Every structure is written in structure tokens, then in C-alpha cells.
């Protein structure tokens, strides 16, 4: 006997008339109707599908045994819910093995935060499985609001309210339009994120869209105690907060300006007060995505994140924004003038197109300074800073400069020592340095200084293993005068004396 077929059927946002014709037909034809429900046994999905059910159908109630707050399962909530999905899949598999077609009801769309997907993951490789899409709550919310979600080249971001408020705020500020789902218990943090991103005044609250009990209000006016899970926040695009109106920028000077800001190597404690003030005043923040994520969200600011290899495009974007009269902050890790964005912005600013835009550069703590401080004072005397990246300059130039620094007995701070695509340069650099340095020369290997994965060690030039070094590392290679001393607490202190004796 052949096995039955599995169907994940989207029911839409709640109005039974918004089911697709195919969804209604499959519900009526199915041998088994399965639906998730809470401990009380009632199911919203079943109530939506009720008009299409027929007598004689088997019903499988997949009753959630836990909530996120309460469970006695030894594996906690995750363990309990995983066990529930496994047992539910086995129950459905018994019907499928018996040749019965099974329809799993799912509010909204089965593959859009839907409960069906967990059954699909466990059964689709063994049984014929089909998914019937449904109208999502986001589409329904836009319909009842009478506002388009996006148009032309605008970007819509869909966010779960369960994200931390700072992450929500960052993403809300980065996008044109947004919808935030899974409110309920998360309403407070979602409201905080909307306020921090400057989007609270534009946001609408839609509860149970298309139901007879639907509710629509400005988000800022909603009582948190009245918010159920089945609600969504809808934030229109900046340019369409009101028909035909532009979103007014915060007060600023008539002429735009670009300020290139150094954040330091990691965390807010490394950022100077001067940099903080510039970030707070900016209308726009421009930068590499992970660096922008380190900057606190402020109401009214727009963020423009980009990848790590588009420095020229990023600089041009910042200058264009300033040309329109905005105050723009371009963020860099460490110091913006050390292998970072300051040069890229100033190079682009030479074009006559941006002749009216002023550029300022605010310093930051460099990675070399942070790494040196962790071990003492290896940069206490003359030193040079050199990048091993040959993306913007040929390796021959790097090798010639390494040799010159080694012959001059300079301490060398090495940036960009290795990456996934650059695996041989550090070994070559080590050989160049060994031709002029004692094999016992101390080498500081500092990784992610100030970050969660910080690790700092002191090797010798002879023992340095290039395979242990990656892009997040900075190296400091000592001179002939650099000293290493073990301290009473077991750590090594490294320093280079300021006096220099010839001979």
C-alpha cells in the first residue's frame, strides 16, 4: 500500500475567506486534519479552517506541552519543544504509513515563522510533501492600514520582536520600511527599539488583522498590557510617513560635513569623548556593517552599512549625503588614518564634485597601541607600522619595506598578517625578518584585543607559527633592544628601552 501525502496548508491571517481555493479544497479532501494548540485544547488554526472541514475526518491535536517560561524537562524549553516535535512527527507518520493524506493547518504561511515547518523538516524526506502558501500577517496588516509596504527600490525588513532591543533598533534604522512580528511579551523592547531608531512616531500597531476583532492604533499609543502575540508593528518607508511628504531631518548646519571617526579597537570604552560627540551629532552614519553595529542607536539617525571591500563607494556615499547638507559620520575601527577610511574619504573628496564638502578626521586608539599596552611598552622606541595585505600594493613593495625596517632595527607593528585568501605572506615576512634579526627576538601576537575572544601571547621570531595567525591578529616584532621579563603574576611584560646604545 502506498503512503499518504503530507500537506502544509497556509490559512492566511485569520479571515476564513482569505484562504486560497487550493487550501480550502485540500482541507475538505484530507483524511487527517492536524493542528497545533495550547494546553487548553483550543486552536486558532482549526477555527479558521472550520468552514471547510467535513464529517468523518480524523483530527490530530498537536498540543504544546510547555511555554518558554515553564518546563520541568531536563533539557529546558529547547529540549522539551524538540521532544514535542519529534513525537508529533511520529504521530503524523503513523497516518501517512497507513495511506492517509494529512493536512497540517498553519496560520499565515507555513514557511513564514510557521509551525508546520518543523513537521516538514522531519517528514519531507520520507513522504510526498507539499506546501500551500498563505497570506501573511504582514500583507494583511498593510491591507487593513491601506498603506503599501514598499514601492520602487525601497527595502522592506521583516524582524522578529524576540531580537534584543539594540539589534532591533540598528536594523530598523538601517532599512526603509519594516514589519516587526511576535509582539506580546516583547512589546516593551520593540517600543524601545522603535524609539531609539527614531521610527516610533511612524509605526502602526495592527492586532489580529482581518479578524472581526482586529485593532489598529498608532504604536506609541498602545497599552503594553493589552498586546497579544498575534499583532504586528508596521513602519512605512521614510519618504512615505505621510502622502507626498518627506521625513524632516534633525536640525543641522546649512553646509554638510563628513567626519571620519575612529572607534578604537573594540567596545565603547575604547571610543574617545570627542568621537562620541561627533557620532551623536550626525544625521547619517556610514561604515562597514560590524563597525556600525558597535555604535549606539540614536533617534533620527540613518545608518548606511556596506561590505568590507567597497571603501571608495562608501566614501562617495558619505560625501553625497554631505553635499545635500547632512552631517555625516564615517566610522572606522581603530584609528581612521591607519589603514582605514580617512584616506579613502580624502581621496574621493579631491573630486570637484565634492568641492563644497569639508572633511574632518577624529583619531582613535590604534590596534597597535592596544596590543602594545596589553604587554607593556614594546613601542617605547622607534617603530614602524606595516600592512601585509597585498590587495592595494604589490608584495615586492611590502618585502622591500620589511627588509628596510629590519635593517634599521625598528620595532615592526604588522597589520593584516593573514586572511583566508592570503596564507603565505606571513611566512615570507618571517623569513625576511630572520635574515636580519636574532631568532630569539620577541614577537607579540595579539588577537581581538578588547573583544570577547581576546588572546595575547609572546613568541619568538623563530617559534612563530604562521598557521596560528589570522586576520583578527596584530603582530609586534621587537628590535634588538626589546626586552621580555616574567612578572610575579606569571605574565610576560615586553618593552623597548627609550635609550639606544650604538655598536
Structure description:
The chain has 503 residues and is α/β, with parallel strands linked by helices. It folds into 4 domains: 6-135, Cobalt-precorrin-4 Transmethylase, domain 1 (3-Layer(aba) Sandwich); 138-235, Tetrapyrrole methylase, C-terminal domain (Methyltransferase, Cobalt-precorrin-4 Transmethylase, Domain 2, 2-Layer Sandwich); 257-365, Cobalt-precorrin-4 Transmethylase, domain 1 (3-Layer(aba) Sandwich); 368-495, 2-Layer Sandwich (Methyltransferase, Cobalt-precorrin-4 Transmethylase, Domain 2), CATH 3.30.950.10. It contains 14 helices and 23 strands. The strands form 5 sheets. A 5-stranded parallel sheet has the order 3-2-4-1-5, sandwiched between helices. Strands 6-7-10-8-9 form a 5-stranded mixed sheet, with helices on both faces. A 5-stranded parallel sheet has the order 13-12-14-11-15, with helices on both faces. Strand 8 (204-207) and strand 9 (215-218) form a beta hairpin. It is elongated. It starts with 5 loop residues before the first strand and ends in an 8-residue tail after the last strand.
Topology (SSEs and partners):
Layout: E1 6-10, H1 21-29, E2 32-37, H2 44-49, E3 58-63, H3 76-97, E4 102-106, H4 117-123, E5 129-132, H5 137-145, E6 156-160, H6 165-174, E7 177-181, H7 187-196, E8 204-207, E9 215-218, E10 231-235, E11 257-262, H8 273-281, E12 284-288, H9 289-292, E13 302-306, H10 311-323, E14 327-332, H11 341-349, E15 358-362, H12 367-375, E16 376-377, E17 383-387, H13 395-407, E18 411-415, H14 425-434, E19 442-447, E20 455-460, E21 473-477, E22 483-486, E23 492-495
Parallel strand pairs: 1-4, 1-5, 2-3, 2-4, 6-7, 11-14, 11-15, 12-13, 12-14, 16-23, 17-18
Antiparallel strand pairs: 7-10, 8-9, 8-10, 18-21, 19-20, 19-21, 22-23
Helix pairs in contact: 3-4, 6-7, 10-11, 13-14
